[in-house]
Amino acid sequence: MRQLRALLCLCLLAQVALASRVRTRRELAPGLYEHGVYDAGGAYCQRGDVCCHGRDDGCTVPYQDTLCYCDLFCNRTISDCCPDFWEYCLGIPAPFPKAPGCARAGHTYPTGATYRENCNLCTCGPGGQWQCEDHACLMDGELIDAVNRGNYGWRAANYSQFWGMTLEDGIRYRLGTFRPSPTVMNMNEMQMNMDSNEVLPRHFDAAAKWPGMIHEPLDQGNCAGSWAFSTAAVASDRISIHSMGHMTPALSPQNLLSCDTRNQRGCSGGRLDGAWWYLRRRGVVTDECYPFTSQQSQPAAQPCMMHSRSTGRGKRQATARCPNAQTHANEIYQSTPAYRLSSSEKEIMKELMENGPVQAILEVHEDFFMYKSGIYRHTPVAEGKGPKHQKHGTHSVKITGWGEEQLPDGQTQKYWTAANSWGTAWGEGGYFRIARGVNECEVETFVVGVWGRVSMEDMPHK
Ligand SMILES: *[C@@H]1O[C@H](CO)[C@@H](O)[C@H](O)[C@H]1NC(C)=O
Ligand SMILES: *[C@@H]1O[C@H](CO)[C@@H](O)[C@H](O)[C@H]1NC(C)=O
């Protein structure tokens, strides 16, 4: 008797162990009802003619892109049962209400099921109809086709990093420069001694004139902080150029985002004059020292992790370690006051050629996100789709050169080359070209230059 009991116990234990192992494995399988997508009306056990009246781990049939079970072990709490298991195998109604369901791609989905169509969420309504949101999407196949068919001088592409975002989100998270206030707009323009007959080259590329000193386009991710990115980008190049390559720091946008907080809003936008004020008065460290960590839009601003103190004559020194253990070099880089250039095409060109890349604001419209190559001009392709599809916001970029191209009709198309901050997979290796001399998207409205604060001490002694 005792022996029998022991044996029974052992068996039970073994069975419990087996059950828990199997159960764990099955629970780890992708939940069939995850995301609320399941086929309420499908015939699975029935189609495969499978019903297992015990526990059978192999008792499965294909279910969409995974498997579902037709054995007694299946259970709504595990939710890996085929939807027709109860009715077909047990002859009882399924333990969940049968919804009228919505049809999609040969399946029926219950009320409340959802799927995404680009930037819009579609929900199966109580009446058995899909109800989809109606946002304008950042990537829109119709607009991409319209640009590419339209002979506008540039090509559009579908970017996976933008797919699924609404146009509003694109404007909200991918730009991030406040329009300069009227006082800043009226800032004195640099007077340039320029002979109106002066002949400038037809092509200019800062990277060719200053090899090794022009930094790669940056990637702001979904941080609406182009104010910090374009400022860091222009300052990095100019400090490199003005130090004649003795210092080639890639400056830290994160330092500006987190520490330049006076009237600035970090990854929710900021002002260029404020950024330049900070670079002059406080200075920033390199990107290696203070890396970018705000890629995803975060609810809370990140605290400032770098501080500095004056060492006299306007120069400063860091009083904090780099906020990452790998880098120790925490030199502070500063600039002189930034200056505004006139909107004259030639003056901008001359400044660029003599002193290096300049910063410019850019009014970004819906079609710009899809830019792939060529000479950009804002197109009317979204006009037919209504006002919701036409949105714009202010951005800032780094202009690095210019050129011109002969069009098939014999006309010459002049352009600027500029670095964006949407990564190097966007546009022409992170750069774009845009029509020059016509203030396209306000690119010539507010152009800024600056001198790196480079003193003799920064130069190596001979
Ligand atoms: C599913 O599991 C619950 C709790 O474990 C149980 O009460 C219920 O009877 C099971 N249903 C089926 C259909 O096996
Ligand atoms: C765009 O790309 C996404 C994924 O990267 C893809 O799912 C979608 O079908 C593409 N759309 C068009 C219109 O090419």
TrEMBL record:
Q: Where is the signal peptide?
A: 1-19
What the entry lists under InterPro entries is as follows: Pacifastin_dom_sf (IPR036201), Papain-like_cys_pep_sf (IPR038765), Pept_asp_AS (IPR025661), Pept_his_AS (IPR025660), Peptidase_C1A (IPR013128), Peptidase_C1A_C (IPR000668), Somatomedin_B_dom (IPR001212)
Q: Which organism is it from?
A: Columba livia (Rock dove)
Q: Where is it localised?
A: Secreted
Q: Which Pfam families match?
A: Peptidase_C1
Residue ranges of every copy of the SMB domain listed in the record: 47-94
GO MF terms listed in the record are: cysteine-type peptidase activity; peptidase inhibitor activity
Name of the protein this chain belongs to:
Tubulointerstitial nephritis antigen-like 1
- Tell me which Gene3D superfamilies the record gives: Cysteine proteinases (3.90.70.10)
Write out the GO biological process terms. Answer: proteolysis
Ordered alphabetically, the record's keywords are: Disulfide bond, Glycoprotein, Secreted, Signal
Name any GO cellular component annotation.
extracellular region
Keyword Secreted part of the UniProt annotation: yes
Question: Would you identify the family this protein belongs to, as annotated?
Answer: Belongs to the peptidase C1 family.
